[in-house]
Amino acid sequence: MQDSWDQSINFLKMSVEVERKFLCNADTRKALEEIGAVCVGQRQFQDQYFDTPMFDLTLRKMWLRKRNKECWELKCQAVDGTEEMSRQQTKAASMCTQYKEITSLHEIQLRLKEVLKTNTDCEANSLQEDECWLGEMNLVPFAEFTTERWSYTLEEEEVQVDLDQADFGYSVGEIEVLVPEGGNVLSALEKIERTAQKLGQSIIVEGRG
């Protein structure tokens, strides 16, 4: 049992999130149920986002957040592994993004140090609880909100669909497939496209971000 759990954790650490966002409304949950999606949970979480005053992370499509006042996450764009694609596949890829999510504070600090080119001592700061490393990297909060999330799965496609409702009134959905690093991204794009087509008119593609 422990071996199985360790393998799951390692997969998540090394996986790439291939995702497509869309605007959702009150009818989206009904549409998901009609195509066979199963609701696997509902939860609420609070996110606080950080960046430099010049938004050096956001402009690089990197998102640093603290979830529920205790868990740090850094979401950064993965290298696109879809060099050889047909025209249709290229169109599907343009509607999706590929991200890695780093949850180890030490790894987050190392990546930020590299990107922001600071002299922060990551070895020492990863053990500190006062978060003085934020000031050393000139990182300040710029957004904070609470989200209500409903999660669905389509087992036949190995797809997860999350519907998020933010406390400031914004609703957004996300079709996601987890791919092992170096895995078949084209297959993930095809699964996402099939799911979007099944949902039909409820899908409205957003800009990236």
Provide structural commentary.
By secondary structure, the protein is α+β, with helices and mostly antiparallel strands. It is built from seven helices and eight strands. It has an eight-stranded antiparallel barrel, surrounded by four helices. A hairpin with a 4-residue loop joins strand 6 and strand 7. The termini are far apart. Residues 1-12 have low confidence and may be disordered.
**Elements, N to C (H/E):** HEHEEEHEHHHEEEH
* Euclidean distance between termini CA atoms: 38 Å
Q: What's the helix count?
A: 7
The tally of beta strands, per DSSP, is 8
As a whole number of angstroms, the C-alpha radius of gyration is 18 Å
Low-confidence stretches: 1-12
Which percent range fits the helix content? 25-40%
Query: Roughly what is the average pLDDT, rounded to an integer?
Result: 84
Which helices and strands occur, and which strands form pairs?
Layout: H1 2-14, E1 15-23, H2 28-34, E2 38-51, E3 62-67, E4 71-77, H3 87-94, E5 97-102, H4 105-116, H5 122-125, H6 132-136, E6 140-154, E7 159-166, E8 171-180, H7 185-199
Summarize, please.
This protein has 209 residues and is of the alpha+beta class. It has seven helices and eight strands, in the order H-E-H-E-E-E-H-E-H-H-H-E-E-E-H.
Task: Give a quick set of tags describing it.
209 residues, 31% helix, alpha+beta
